[in-house]
Amino acid sequence: MWSLSVLIFEVPSGYLADRFGRKRTMILGVLLVLFSGIMNWFAFGFWQFAFQFILTAASFSMFSGTEEAMLYDTLKELKREEEMTHFNGRMSGTKHIFKIFIPAIGAFVAKDLLESQFRILIGVNILVGLIAFYFVARLVEPRHVKSVEKLEKGIFKDSLNAIKADSFLIRAALNSSLVFIVNFITWRLYQPILVNYGVSVLWIGIFYILMQGAIFTNYWYLGYLEKRFGSAWIINGSLVGIILSFLALIFLHTVWILYIAMMLVMILDTLRAPVFSHGINKRIPSHSRATTLSNLNVIRGFLNVPILLITAWLSTDSSQSVFIFCLIISVAVLIALPMRERELKNVTIGVE
User: Fold this and answer.
1) Which end of the chain is more exposed for a tag (fewer CB within 10 A), N or C?
2) pLDDT mean over 282-303
3) How confident is the model at residue 153 (pLDDT cuts 50, 70, 90)?
4) Domains plus CATH for the chain?
């Protein structure tokens, strides 16, 4: 339901961002998540919860691509667009600060699984949504994003033309999406696998805290790493690390090797998204930036369905089969869709 809902709302949300403004679209996203929280407070039946879930997915779509577009155009106006990876990494890292400790607090509050305890958590979510509304309402859009009225009717067509004109955009989207899905599969499997190997709940909790802490650190210093080693080195090098981790998962069955290898898959993948974002955004015209990013994100939505269905079928056999499948995808991406430094640094089409 989540994947389908995001897929449905992805492109319209990008068009809204380019047509009516990125700030307004993000405000709509916050309002949707607030309404979702209120629905969650009163929901009791399946269809009520399903509708609440759809609202949350729609809210996610309003921010998908819109945040990146607004950040890049802001940096471009300030003539600091070459720092996109640094600021995008810091923005992404900030989200993970809360993921380090919030789940533990939530588990403590709802330790008895009582309705009153869950209502406290829902109430906190609504309060956080109100705080988010305050901050989003204070954002200022770059001036040149607002002066595009003469281009509004051609936004969607221009976004498709931008993608057709530059094969790098499709290859980058495929590379990023396929490895992200592999990471998502690993994230879905790590808890049941560790439980099957007898790892205690405490150590599974430590796994989550260490992973989120490492992801935060990655994001925070990603701008420095890009300057030091280059964009292609980060993207291709992290993928090599993911491949080696899957080899360890397939051939080495010591519990702590599995523990570390699964963590590495999830940590290394987070290095890639902000670097891809920098390389992709510099090739996209400003007036259709959010729509183009949404169109590229649709690729991930379409890939999700067959890959996750195959994964579900393979998981009935063993987790080893799933990891072999993930390894095949990762190796195929490295061979067929390698990223080159000149492609990530040089702009090959006209960008406003």
Assistant:
1) N
2) 88
3) low
4) 2-139+156-339 (1.20.1250.20)
